[in-house]
Amino acid sequence: MSYVIFGRAIKTEYLTLGTLFATGGAVFASLGGKKESASSSKPLSERVKEAVPISAGSSEEEQLMNSIKNFIAEAEKEGGAGHH
User: Fold this and answer.
1) Which of 7, 61, 80, 84 is a Cys-bridge partner for 56, taking CB atoms 3.0 to 4.6 Å apart?
2) 3-class state of residue 4 by DSSP
3) Pairing between strand 8-11 and 2-5?
């Protein structure tokens, strides 16, 4: 049996092999790369600060950013004290 894809007849064996190789390649690509250990990683607020640099354009924005940073810091203290 075969399917017509882009005007060409493709056998089901080739579709099956293509699917298996594509899935294997995706798994291999997702497992590669540098790993960081969870115990020595930076706190969430530090990672957010590095990933999303935000500069305030006015004093209201700066106050909002400070309140968000304080909220995250307090949530980390509460969450980190009772767990592990």
Assistant:
1) 61
2) strand
3) antiparallel
